[in-house]
Amino acid sequence: MKQDRSILVVEDEQATRDLVCAQLGADYEVRSASNGEEALSMLKKRNFDLMLLDLNLPGINGLQVLEKVAAGGKGPTVIMVSADAVVANAVRALREGAYDYLVKPFSMEQLHTTLAQALDCTEFLSANRVQRKSARRATDFAGMLGEAECMLELKSDIGKIADTRGTVLLMGESGTGKELAARAIHELSARRRGPYIRINCAAIPESLLEAELFGHEKGAFTNAISRREGMFELSHGGTLLLDEVTEIAPNMQSKLLRVLQEREIMRIGGKESIKVDVRVIATTNRDLRKEVREGRFKEDLYYRLNVIPLNVPPLRDRPEDIAMLTGYFVRRSCAENGRAMLEVDASAMEAIVRHPWRGNVRELENCIERTVILCEGEILDAEQLRLDAEIGEDGAVEGLDSTSLTLREMEKELILRRLNRTGGNRTKAAEMLGISVRTLRNKINQYRTEGVAIPS
């Protein structure tokens, strides 16, 4: 470690200052100051990794220097020293941000150990801050990660259409990142300073969806005690994301079509139309053409939404991105959970790349987060991944005897397993099952009438 770290020694007794500087000179770049004012002046000119700060200094004392260093934000890691073993002083120094408090006389061995520990702690915290900053930052195209050809094509298309006004239809399986793509469109558009509002059409009961989208006037219905603006009004000047748009009931589809055509809404109980300037993005994990053919989705609305269709590829179509995504999720999870960076060994990476990831990127993300939280060592291996073994390579559900169970019984068992695995979270369970939240809700109600206990 010879002189690759710097330390400022602040000590008014020259003999002590010279002795400490001589002892540390072999391992650190050492500078010294005889009082607090001189130390603060030196700190303004350059940075130090460590500061050995005497408490009893002439003029401004060590605690006052420490307060100024702490108030300045980025500064050296401070070890306070004093000939007085006063507990109150030690407590105050630690509260003000000192790493440790040494009482004179102390041995050089004790000093070296304390300084080394302070450096280790500082380096860990610094790395953790970098990880947090990196994890929060949109590292690639407004947060969309991937260099596979299909992802590059999608990002290129988003770049071309982001600043247009046309309605966008994002299609893809659950967990592929449709909402990220929607946010990227918003952030790359001229509307990025306007509101970005997302509404999950499947999660809102049919009786409430109209009020959520279009708002209502006071007294329009029971409990409408005041006027309320809907999502379209709140999104004025920005972007409205209609997530899982295929779950909208037919009568609401007609009203949505009118809004998209006329670019105006009418609140429930209102008498006047209100013009709105909103970029609409819709997402679906269903085949909309099939929904239209089978009469579940209005053809006119389909064409109105399908102005700019974009397909978000499943993870199986971009296997070359899996290792990169894994590394990103590991770094982010380590940063968010305040732990040192984990190393993903070869066995884990091989298992990750070979896994089918039917839940796509969301399943991979959740798996990595769970593993980081539960991992006890510094190496993340295949055993710790605990990859879901319920679905075999042939698509069969392990533990279910397809020869003795009816299709309905197998369906019920799989639904209950997914609810149990997600802690009763219906949205996540529906995504894993590949069905809508409404369908899952109907199944749950049916099972309850049969006396089945529903995981929660």
Task: Describe the protein.
- Helix 5 crosses helix 13 (322-336), helix 13 crosses helix 15 (360-374) and helix 18 packs across helix 19.
- The strands form five sheets. Strands 2-1-3-4-5 form a five-stranded parallel β-sheet, with helices on both faces. A five-stranded parallel β-sheet has the order 7-10-13-6-14.
- It folds into four domains: 6-136, 3-Layer(aba) Sandwich (Rossmann fold); 161-313, P-loop containing nucleotide triphosphate hydrolases (Rossmann fold, 3-Layer(aba) Sandwich), CATH 3.40.50.300; 316-385, Helicase, Ruva Protein, domain 3 (Orthogonal Bundle); 407-449, Homeodomain-like (Arc Repressor Mutant, subunit A), CATH 1.10.10.60.
- It has helices at residues 14-24, 36-45, 62-71, 87-95, 108-136, 149-161, 178-187, 206-214, 231-234, 250-262, 288-293, 299-305, 322-336, 346-354, 360-374, 382-385, 407-421, 426-433, 437-449, and strands at 6-10, 29-33, 50-54, 77-82, 100-103, 168-171, 196-200, 215-216, 228-229, 239-243, 264-265, 274-275, 279-284, 308-311, 343-344, 379-380.
- With 456 residues, the chain is of the alpha/beta class.
- The protein is built from 19 helices and 16 strands.
- The radius of gyration is 31 Å and the shape is elongated.
In short:
By secondary structure, the chain is α/β, with parallel strands linked by helices. It contains 19 helices and 16 strands.
SSE topology sketch:
Blueprint: E1 6-10, H1 14-24, E2 29-33, H2 36-45, E3 50-54, H3 62-71, E4 77-82, H4 87-95, E5 100-103, H5 108-136, H6 149-161, E6 168-171, H7 178-187, E7 196-200, H8 206-214, E8 215-216, E9 228-229, H9 231-234, E10 239-243, H10 250-262, E11 264-265, E12 274-275, E13 279-284, H11 288-293, H12 299-305, E14 308-311, H13 322-336, E15 343-344, H14 346-354, H15 360-374, E16 379-380, H16 382-385, H17 407-421, H18 426-433, H19 437-449
Helix pairs in contact: 2-3, 5-13, 10-12, 13-15, 17-18, 18-19
